[in-house]
Structures are given as structure tokens and as C-alpha cells.
Amino acid sequence: MERLTDQDLAELRELCPGGVSMNVDLASISQWKIGGTADVILRPSSSAQVANLRRWFHERQMPHVAVGLTSNLLFSDEGLRVPCLQIGPRMGAVAINGTNVYAQAGTWVPGLARKLMKAGLTGGEHICGIPGTLGGLICMNGGSQRKGIGTSVVTVESVDQGGFRCVRSVTDCGFAYRQSVFQGNNEVITSANLRFVPGDRAVVRAEMRAILAERRQKFPRKQPNCGSVFKSNPAMYAEIGPPGEAIERLGFKGTRVGGAEVSPEHANFIVNRGGARARDVLALIAAIKHKVECATGYQLQAEGHYVGASGTIMPLDGGSQEDMPPDQPGCGGPAGP
Length: 337
Hints:
The chain is an alpha+beta fold. It folds into 3 domains: 6-89, Uridine Diphospho-n-acetylenolpyruvylglucosamine Reductase, domain 2, CATH 3.30.43.10; 91-203, Uridine Diphospho-n-acetylenolpyruvylglucosamine Reductase, domain 3, CATH 3.30.465.10; 234-315, UDP-N-acetylenolpyruvoylglucosamine reductase, C-terminal domain (Uridine Diphospho-n-acetylenolpyruvylglucosamine Reductase, domain 1, Alpha-Beta Complex). The protein contains 9 helices and 17 strands. It has helices at 6-15, 26-29, 47-59, 109-118, 134-140, 201-218, 234-239, 243-249, 278-296, and strands spanning 20-25, 37-42, 65-67, 73-75, 84-86, 94-97, 100-104, 121-122, 153-159, 165-169, 188-195, 197-198, 256-257, 260-262, 270-272, 305-307, 313-315. It has a 5-stranded antiparallel sheet with strand order 6-7-11-9-10. The chain has a 4-stranded mixed sheet with strand order 1-2-5-3.
């Protein structure tokens, strides 16, 4: 794959002043603490910078990838050979005007929830424990307690592959359970306008504390992880229960491959016990999917995504050329614990 020249880097530094980093250890920015080395990471500070960078890449037909705080990503053990746009704290501005909220895509979600509480607004309590950026939350229509951020969205601004900025109303965002149009259109979310409703600050604070306390009791916090690995399927939930319950019943808690482990605290989490590699995580995911389907007839779907060295992004259970383990045997085979 063609590398960036010195002239390329000089131009990128002009387009993204103060935001260009070379030879970045992906494990240092990964929530899972997994990944090789990225050749270059660009951290823009505005929608205009995102548009200019994407236009620059488009004009040169140069592939690139965009990420947030990586709370639902697994990076390749081979690293990342294409330029990476990371939308993070440099794009974290928030402005609250009555019930209307403007926030850039790099806004840290728990911080946004606290700002809403302090402003006496309700409707954002369910996001208070989600450790990611607003852009990633909107892309996944994320939330907790079976809620999604899409219910609070008014408009979303994004930048397409050619560097053109687009504003969509909530009806054009295609929000469904853990889904949005942004999951398949290769656009980078840069900001959003949201609307919440007035509430009692003390009541909102109490609900947020209760949600955080429940998360602390249920979910692993000490080892690096990317949150829930598998999505909840409403039909499976009604018949079998949530993914973690089905996985636990099959004896996966504590199962390890290399440094990756199915958390003893919650079976829908895979934690890095130290030195885990991407292929370790992928092997566990493949084994879990195989056994759950054999036992229940339901196919689990991964929440997160895998980022290959070439910048290809695919579902965690979608395989990869470089890290994917061998195919699983039939339902009578020895896969899993």
C-alpha cells in the first residue's frame, strides 16, 4: 500500500493544524488495548477540517478510515496502513439553549449526560454510562435500557467521502434498534442538534446514579473491554433471554483464548487479561456464535466492528483475512468450552 510522502504530510498538517500524529500504537487508543501501529492519525477540530481532509483524500483516491474513541472497535494486530481520522476531544464542543442542544461528534457521552442533568433536562439519563463519543452513539443509535439516542435527535451533520457536508433530519437518519443510515453510507458524523425536555434535576441525578450503580455491579470495569459484544435480539430475548444469559448457560464465563477472556462478571463481555490479540477476541466470538446457534437456533450479531490493516471496517463476526480463526466445525464439533 502506498505510503504518505513528506509533501503529503506537510499538506495534511496545513489542513489539520496540531492534529497530526505519526506511528501511533493503536493499543494506546483502543478501549480493548489491542492493535498494531497506525502510520498516521489525524485529529480534526471542526467540521470544516473533516470536510477538507476527506476532500483531499478523495481527490487523490486515497483510502482512509474514521474512528471515534474506539469503544466498539477492534483493531488489527497488523496495525493500520491507511490514514485514520479520529473524531475526539478536539471536536467536543457543547452548547445548550433551553431544551435545544448542539454538540460536536467528538463529545464524550457521559460528559454530555452530566451537562444535560446540570441544565435540568431529562431524556439523556440512559446514555450516562456509555464510554464513547456522540458520533459513535448516533451511528449505532446507542443507548441503554433498550433506548436509543435517535429519539432525541433533531438533525445530524455529516461529511461524505467526497468532502461534502450534509444535514439530515431525524426522519432521514433511518434510526431503528441499534441501527442508522450512517452504518452503511461511509459518511463521518461531525455534529448533531438534539432536543430534550425539562425535568427535575434531583430526579435526573438520582436516575443517573442508579444506572451507573447497576452498571458497576453487572459489568466488568477493571479489564479493558469494548462493552457488550453481541446485540440483543427481541425474539431471542423473549424466548431465551439476553445474549449474556444464553452465553453463560453454555459455560463460557471465564473461557480464554490467549489473553482474551469471556468475563466472569458478565458473559456478554470479552476482556483483555493482558497481551490479548485481535485474533484471540475473534476466536472467542466465533466459538460463542457457533455454540449459541447450535443450542438455541438463534444467530447472535456482534455490536462492534473490526478495523483491518487496509482500513476495511466490518462487523466483529464478519471475519477478516488477517486475523480470523479457522471455520467452526458442525454443531457436533468441539468448538467452545
